[in-house]
Amino acid sequence: MNHYRMHSKMRVLTDEIVSGQDILGCLLMGHDFKSWWIGSLLDIEEARELVPHQNATTMQVAISLASAVQWIIKNPQQGVCVPDDLPHEEILEQCWPWLGPCVSKPVDWTPLLGIESEKHCDYERKPSPGTDDEWQFSSFLVNSF
């Protein structure tokens, strides 16, 4: 809530992080499996074994960029490409050793799961969406806090 202005005080966390795991992925929703989660589970210890003084988030983000740039250097005649045009298997092959364990599994979650118990959200202005239409955008709209 700083109107896109940088904070006056900033610091990059490096060795201050002593434990934990960064779970970076994607939740796909609205199909027969309800939801599907795919992502990387990289803990700080494994990240530091790979690159000292770094953290899991940096590793997960940087390796995808580094792999894509390496592909660009190898393929200068391809011109401008959007991610969908890139050979993702070739790029991911270089990423796997740096991402830690990767998971792809169905998840029993819908936007209406637990909606009745949500005390910090206001659904008073409109009726709660029905289960027959739970994947509509209106299912995700709430008046927060």
Structural write-up:
By secondary structure, this protein is of the alpha+beta class. 26% of the residues lie in helices and 21% in strands. The strands form two sheets. The chain has a three-stranded antiparallel beta sheet. Helix 2 runs antiparallel to helix 3. It is extended.
Layout of strands and helices, then pairs:
Elements: E1 21-31, E2 34-43, H1 44-50, H2 56-74, H3 88-99, E3 102-107, E4 121-122, E5 143-144
Antiparallel strand pairs: 1-2, 2-3, 4-5
Helix pairs in contact: 2-3
Give a brief outline of the structure.
26% of the residues lie in helices and 21% in strands. By secondary structure, the chain is of the alpha+beta class. The strands form 2 sheets. A 3-stranded antiparallel sheet has the order 1-2-3.
Q: Over the alpha carbons, how many angstroms does the gyration radius reach?
A: 20 Å
The order of strands across the largest sheet is 1-2-3
User: Would you identify the regions where 5 or more consecutive residues have pLDDT less than 50?
Assistant: none
Percent of residues in beta strands: 15-25%
- How far apart lie the N and C ends? 15 Å
What composes the largest sheet?
3 strands, antiparallel
H/E element sequence: EEHHHEEE
Q: What class, by secondary structure content?
A: alpha+beta
Identify the quaternary structure here: single chain
Based on CA inertia axes, which overall geometry fits? extended
| Beta strand count | 5
| Count of helix runs | 3
Helix content: 25-40%
The mean pLDDT is 83
